[in-house]
Write a structure and sequence with these properties.
single chain, alpha/beta, Rossmann fold, six-stranded parallel sheet
């Protein structure tokens, strides 16, 4: 098996495991370079190269920097490593970006040029649902269609049907979750509200919500505060969950929650896509 095939095999494995990483590919070389076009490397979320190779120290620093940035914003980028005299001819400096290309200086004696495409591969957004209510089951099914990795946690005895989820946990001890942008919804609706809410509070997420009235959430908040749970963590919850669409059925309520999650998920992307002011 060639190194190229081994890298692609590992890409498939890491994607299946819902792990974040960067695939760096040399797309062009000029003159003498350590790596040639087609060379690939996998860069893990901690910045280590776990497989493959895209050259030595001449390119490594620029590629790793671009990889960290790509994992942070989810956007691919092109890195062009060139000797200083060629950068000067182009009228750019090391670290400068132009037309979507980040330029870096090649200080190695070879004085070659390498263009490397840095592509982030992020896990599916994670939706963690606590509860086995009709809203919880509908939310899981709808979220799967929209590409979420769904974890449903509830006592097995509470489940009246097999949930449409990637992972099902018996009870509310969530354990280790995938390293992804995460959304947490408590939809117990009277069955284990307090214990589920405790587990949700302890779970880091970009969005927390509780399917229930403000009055019910206030009552649960008072209990948790008495037991020493951090007030700011509880107040981070949206209650009731979902956009105010006038939803009535479990399916409609689930849809309103997913609409709210989608708005939160896309918030940063919308801001990045806004054109700069011309004023």
């Amino acid at each position: 098996m060639t190194a190229h095939v081994e890298v692609l095999d590992l890409v498939a494995q890491m994607k299946a495991a819902e792990r974040a990483f960067v695939l760096a590919t040399v797309v062009r070389t000029v003159s003498v370079t350590a790596a040639k076009a087609g060379a690939k490397a996998i860069i893990a979320a901690d910045g280590t190269i776990v497989a493959g190779w895209v050259g030595g120290g001449c390119a490594r620093g620029a590629v790793l920097k671009a990889a960290r940035e790509a994992l942070a914003d989810g956007e691919p980028r092109m890195v062009s490593v060139q000797p200083e005299n060629l950068l000067a001819e182009l009228g750019v400096s090391a670290g400068e970006s132009r037309d979507g290309i980040r330029f870096a200086s090649n200080m190695c004696p070879s004085k070659g040029t390498m263009d490397i495409f840095v592509e982030p591969v992020l896990p599916h957004p994670s939706l963690v649902i606590l509860g086995a209510s009709p809203v919880a089951l509908s939310l899981a099914a709808q979220a799967r269609v929209l590409g979420y990795h769904v974890t449903l946690a509830a006592p097995a005895a509470d489940l009246t049907a097999q949930p449409d989820a990637d992972a099902v946990i018996d009870g509310y001890q969530l354990g280790e979750l995938s390293d992804a942008k995460r959304f947490v919804v408590v939809s117990t609706q009277g069955r284990g509200d307090e214990v589920a809410l405790r587990a949700a509070v302890a779970t880091k997420a970009d969005y927390h919500a509780f399917v229930g009235s403000r009055r019910k959430m206030a009552s649960l908040r008072a209990k948790l505060l008495t037991d020493g749970v951090n007030a700011a963590a509880i107040d981070d919850f949206k209650a009731p969950a979902g956009l105010d669409l006038g939803a009535i059925t479990p399916e409609e309520i689930a849809m309103s929650i997913l609409a709210e999650i989608t708005a939160e998920r896309r918030r940063g992307q919308r801001a990045a896509q806004q054109p700069a002011s011309r004023e």
